[in-house]
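Translate sequence into structure tokens.
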Amino acid sequence: MIELERVEAAAGDRLRAQADGNPDAEAAAAAVLQHAVAAAMAAGVELSDVVAGESAGRHRVREELQPSALRSVRRASEKAREAERERDGQIARTQRLGVPRRLVAEAAGCAPATVKAIVTAAAAASNGAGSSVPDGNSTSTGDDEQTETGMVDGPQRERHPP
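Result follows.
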């Protein structure tokens, strides 16, 4: 029946518009689908057949678009991993330069503890071979700077007995 083919095509077009994130196209496709369903019902097509037609149309488009959508996800994920590796390398570099962890964290849009974790992971990955990445000291507030001798030179704090 031609009415069911129209329902299938309209349901597929609506799913395609939804997947593309185009609200105007989605609204137009929904209107076409509604009209196709009404025409099918007026022609005496059973409701269960109309529902099956909608489902078949969505399934057809899903099967058609799925491979390219998954390829796009894989490509985007690889780009994200590469960008993360580059960011981590640059963070490690700033720490080798002795840039305060707080400033690096601000530039990277993360917490100083995240910077420390990235630097620690980079040092562990290189097994310490030639690594001169300072790890700061455990009580660092992120304001400390490493001196040329490798010592941490940060704000001096007075210690008061409890």
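Note: The two ends are 87 Å apart (CA to CA).
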